[in-house]
Amino acid sequence: MSDLLAYCQDRTDEMVDLLRACAEYETFTADKPAVDQFVSFLAGQLRDRGAVVERIPRREVGDLLLAKWNAGAPGRPITYVGHMDTVWPAGTLAERPLRVEGGRLYGPGVADMKGGIVVMLSAIRALQERGEMPDRPIWALLTSDEETGSAHSRELILKVARQSGLCVIIEPATAEGAVKTWRKGAADCRLLVTGRASHAGAAPEAGINAVVELAHQILKLNALNDLRNGTSVTVTMARGGYTNNVVPESAEAYIDMRFLKRAEAERVQEAVTALYPLLPGAQLEIIFGDNRPPLERDERMRATYAQLVRIADGIGVTLREDGTGGVSDGNLTASVGTPTLDGMGPTGEGLHAVDENVLISSLPERMAVHVALIQQWVMES
Ligand SMILES: [Zn+2]
Fold first, then answer.
1. Which of 85, 295, 358, 360 is most buried by a 10 A CB count?
2. Quick check: 272 and 289 in contact, CB under 8 A?
3. For position 1, what pLDDT does the model report?
4. How remote is the CA of residue 278 from the centroid of ligand 1, in Å?
5. Quick one: CA dihedral 166, 121, 297, 376, positive or negative?
6. What is the mean pLDDT of the chain?
7. How far is the CA of 192 from the centre of ligand 1 (A)?
8. What is the pLDDT of residues 306-315, one digit of tens each?
9. What are residue 206's phi and psi, to 5 degrees?
10. What are the residues whose beta carbon lies below 5 Å from ligand 1 (ion)?
């Protein structure tokens, strides 16, 4: 075993203590006062490790933190991206207190993603204690609304990603401990159909049936599916009309779209934009909602992951890669062309579920990988 890995394993208890301290803060996205308390705690932890910390206020969600080490050093930064919020409302901890069982720490938010925050903080601490902090800029952007779609942090994430040479997303690894080298992209939209109401008995010919028009559109949307290519287009809700003897004047549907490839995202979104009504006089309106491009396992991702594997091999850690249909802020950082590594937190299970837990032995292992990464990473030129 490498000296570094043994050093990190010696810190396992410290890491568990810090993770417990983080998870004791209940940080439901919608609970700004609660999230802000954790923001203050983390700002202290970051400053304690020598970072210059900027607290960026937000009115509707918790404040954001941007921490910088070696800001004056040459080169583009390695930027850690994590989120402080969880999907668990205050009171969850009383129902499901933190507990250790079978080498795992159970509790709300331990994997998604306070475990990742602890790994990052511990890696920085180790570099300092060992006198090995390289003279390169290291940033950490911690957001507070990832679980609800990053509406209040998206612009800052994109801006920081554009300035960075590598973004390291400290979301949990897969249940098998794999780094995430792909994530599907996601978009959604709402289709509104307007027809014309008329009495279904007295004057059906005077109506324009919005439900019939919507039915045509649903079949066109459904035909955009290409599951073998990783593309799904799912009409998730549909409704129309308001009473049983009137030609319906309005109808609407919600559509969930997922993509593995950027080209597929473009194909589908162009097709949706180009939808046109089939019934004379009917009108369509399309309202696009959230839109995150896929984190694609393209050439850049393959090269980025290959470098990580070489670094981890050097300290005796064997990595694996996998992917997921769920999105993260890694979808955003990769969308501006910045090399991105995702799933760089510890091994987690039961995300957003009642048995959420983190594999304790994966904490020091990931910590060692981050120490080596910060020391050795060679930026793409
Ligand atoms: Zn997360």
1. 358
2. no
3. 64
4. 42
5. positive
6. 96
7. 32
8. 999 999 999 9
9. -85, -10
10. 112-113, 171
- Please list the rounded mean pLDDT of every run of 10 residues in the chain (381 residues): 92 98 98 98 98 98 98 96 97 96 98 98 98 97 95 97 98 96 96 97 97 98 96 97 96 97 95 97 95 94 98 97 94 96 96 94 98 96 69
In contact, 11 and 119? CB cutoff 8 Å: no
Model pLDDT, residue 2: 79
- Dist. CA 170 → ligand 1 center (Å): 8
Distance, in Å, from the CA atom of 62 to the CA atom of 43, rounded to the nearest integer, reads: 13
**328 Cα: distance to centroid of ligand 1 (angstroms):** 7
From the CA of 146, how far away is ligand 1's center (Å)? 7
- How far CA 181 is from CA of 171, 366, 375, in Å, comes to 12, 16, 22
Residue 71 CB coordination number (10 Å): 11
Q: Using alpha carbons, select from 38, 46, 26, 30 the residue that is nearest to residue 98.
A: 26
pLDDT 10s digits, 265-298: 999 999 999 999 999 999 999 999 988 999 999 9
CA–CA–CA angle 105, 107, 113 (5° rounding): 85
Query: What residue spans of 25-113 are helical by DSSP H?
Result: 32-48, 92-95
Sheet holding 64-69, edge to edge: 52-56, 64-69, 138-143, 78-83, 166-169, 340-341
Q: Which residues pair with 191 in a beta bridge?
A: 253, 286
Domain boundaries, the chain: 3-183+294-376, 185-292
| Peptide bond preceding 113 in cis form (omega within 30 of 0) | yes
Beta strands in the chain (DSSP E): 52-56, 64-69, 78-83, 99-101, 104-106, 138-143, 166-169, 179-183, 185-194, 198-199, 232-240, 246-247, 250-259, 283-292, 321-324, 340-341, 348-349, 357-359
Beta bridge partners of 251: 193, 240
The fold adopted by the segment(s) 3-183+294-376 is: Aminopeptidase (3.40.630)
Burial readout 90-129 (b: 16 or more C-beta within 10 A, e: otherwise): eebbeeeebeeeeebbbbbbbbbbbbbbbbbbbbbbbbee
pLDDT of residue 371: 98
The rounded Å distance from CA 39 to ligand 1 centre is 16
